[in-house]
Here is the input.
Amino acid sequence: MGSQLHMFMFPFMARGHMIPVVDMAKFLSSRGIKITIVTTPLNSISISNSLHASKSLSVSQIHLLILEFPSVRVGLPDGCENFDSVLSPAMFPKFISALNLLQTPFEEAVMEHRPHCILADAFFPWANDVAAKFGIPRLNFNGTSFFSYCASEFMRIHEPYNHVSSDTEPFLIPYLPGEIAFTKMKLSQLVRENVKNDVTDFLKRAQESGSASYGVVMNSFYELESEYVDCFRNVLGRKAWHIGPLSLCNKVTEEKAQRGNGSTIDEHECLKWLDAKKPNSVVYVCFGSMTKFNSDQLKEIASGLEASEKNFIWVVRKVKREEEEEEEEDQDWSLEEFEQRMEGKGMIIRGWAPQVLILDHPAVGGFITHCGWNSTLEGVAAGVPMVTWPVSAEQFYNEKLVTEVLKVGVAVGVEKWVRIVGDFIGKGAVEKAIRRVMEGEEAEEMRNRAKELGEMARKAVAENGSSCSDLDALIKELKSLAF
Ligand code: UDP
Here is the structure.
């Protein structure tokens, strides 16, 4: 037996980034790799809880290394260590300053522990310099699909949105297979308004550092988006390893329930509720870890759900009053009253849901998702057709993959990228989209395709599957560089 490979993993401090990295750590440690997850004091709590929920012996090979997060030094409130708590645009540049200040302590940790390689989130562009200093490879992780990685790279390089006359005029994403049409409205407002500031400089550096890294580790599998994997490798010319869906490395119920946070609802109660429902009769509604809606939007979702006449589990995260630009609470409607009226038919989870447990339950027949990549891939792995409701980040690209390439979902009709609080959608559109994924022939076809993809996902991470083989190839390459 050769020496043990040691990898530093440094996830960005947001749940959507930490969850897949923790899953990845488990997957790699099961292959005999020693892992050190680098994080900050408050974030280490949820990571540690997730690791403790695992029954696998190899998690003992995963260590935590804690760096102080310099929140107060950059003018953020004490304890603001996670991007989820960055609520206003004014806090964003401060958070970036804090991320940059982590370079020195990170470098000191590398000096002390001498890992053989670093896997760092794209939001640590300086990780390339640290790795170069110690002569080790830096792998990049940005937690999205090959499809959206390719789309955003072609968008960055060719700027096709500069050749349209309005925000709503469609254009094709150049070089991206499949003739995918997009609009400027679906790009971040920083791009739309051609903003140049510290934030855009940082985002540009993050994207460029990805291309300059040794290679990219992707939470995806070859059969899902082979054309885009090939495009990434052959047209963009980047090294990449697909090792997902990473959520599938969670085997036991406690482990699934503890991903990210620990549920705010007893998972057994939730599963019991689902057990009493017919197969494919429940719609699961969740918009990831960050998106929050105001009361007006919640009311439309509620009315759409009620009109669809389907059972549902709805994870509700509401904008706090102080975050709302204008207070316009609707006095005629309350979530509590809706919840009581829907008793038996609908379950409302305030806070954090055991998402993969819910999605994997046979009673769940549809998923309304904001198209964060983790959620999208979890929906695929569970074989569930989706209603796509993108909000921000790269979610509009993932929507295209789901609705136009994979054809396992329908768009609810969001036209505009709006950070965190989302563009407004009326109840009629919600009802219509739910019915389309839950009833009739079109739904049946989508469900069959989704089930097939779910099967492929399981095969990909099983012995000799495409993701398992790529993981072996990655480990082999890293070992050849290290020893
Ligand atoms: N998640 C969860 N319970 C919730 C909300 C989210 O377990 O109530 C998990 C979900 O399973 C996924 C992650 O949080 O793994 C969200 O990541 P995604 O990329 O979908 O969206 P983001 O939160 O980054 O916008």
